[in-house]
Amino acid sequence: EAGVAQSPRYKIIEKRQSVAFWCNPISGHATLYWYQQILGQGPKLLIQFQNNGVVDDSQLPKDRFSAERLKGVDSTLKIQPAKLEDSAVYLCASSLILGGVAYEQYFGPGTRLTVT
Amino acid sequence: QQQVKQSPQSLIVQKGGISIINCAYENTAFDYFPWYQQFPGKGPALLIAIRPDVSEKKEGRFTISFNKSAKQFSLHIMDSQPGDSATYFCAASIVGGKLIFGQGTELSVKP
Lengths: 116, 111
Known about the structure:
The structure holds two protein chains of two kinds. Chain A is mainly beta. Helices cover 0% and strands 51% of the residues of chain A. Chain A has strands at residues 5-7, 10-13, 19-24, 31-37, 44-50, 53-56, 65-68, 75-79, 88-95, 97-98, 101-102, 106-107, 111-115. Chain B has strands at residues 4-7, 10-14, 19-25, 33-38, 45-50, 56-59, 62-67, 72-77, 86-92, 100-101, 105-110. In chain B, the strands form two sheets. In chain B, strands 2, 4, 5, 9, 10 and 11 form a six-stranded mixed beta sheet that branches. In chain B, strands 1-3-8-7-6 form a five-stranded antiparallel beta sheet, with no helix packed on it. Chain B starts with a strand and ends with a strand. Chain A binds chain B through residues 4, 31, 33, 35, 40-45, 48, 56, 91, 93, 95, 97, 101-102, 104-110, and chain B through 6, 34, 36, 41-46, 49, 89, 91, 95-99, 101-104.
C-alpha cells in the first residue's frame, strides 16, 4: 500500500512570495490533516478535512494560509504572502474512517520550506 | 489545557539499556495516546498507541505505561539499539480529532 505522498520535498522562497504544497493521501482515507512542524518542536495542526469538508481550521492563519481538498482526495496548502516565521516542515497526514471513527494518522515525508 | 508536556528533551542511552520518555496531559477528554518516531528528513511514523481503558500495552521492545489518575503516560524502549536513535513524540487526541504533540525527545543510543 502506497503511503502519503507530498511534493515538493524542499522549497526556498523569499518573504512576501507565494508557495503551494500538494498532498495525496493513502487511498481510501477520508480524513486529511495538514500540520506545521517548526524545527525542534512537535507538529501543530493547521487544518483537518473530512472528505472535502473542513472539520477544524482553528489554528490556520487565514490571512495568509489557505487549503482546499477538491473531490475529497488530493489537497493543496497555499501560503501567500510568506513570512520568515513560516519556515518549517509542512506535513500531510491521513486516516481511515470506519463506523464513523477515524483511526491512526499516517504521515507523509513533509515539505521543508525555507523563507529568506 | 490542550498541552502535552514531554520530558526529557534529550536522552543518551547505552546499547542494550532501557530508554524511558515521559508525557503528561491536562485534558481529561483525551482518549487516544500515540507515540511517533521521527528520523531526520522523514515524517513521523506511528510506533505504538494506547487508549485509557488499559494501563499498559506492549509491542516487541516498545511498551506504553498509562496512569489515568495521574494523567501521565510513558514509553519504554527495552534493549535499546543504535537504530532506535531518533526523535520521539508523544501525542494525545480525542479519537478522530487533531493530535496534540509533545515537544519531542531526541534519543541517542551509543554502541
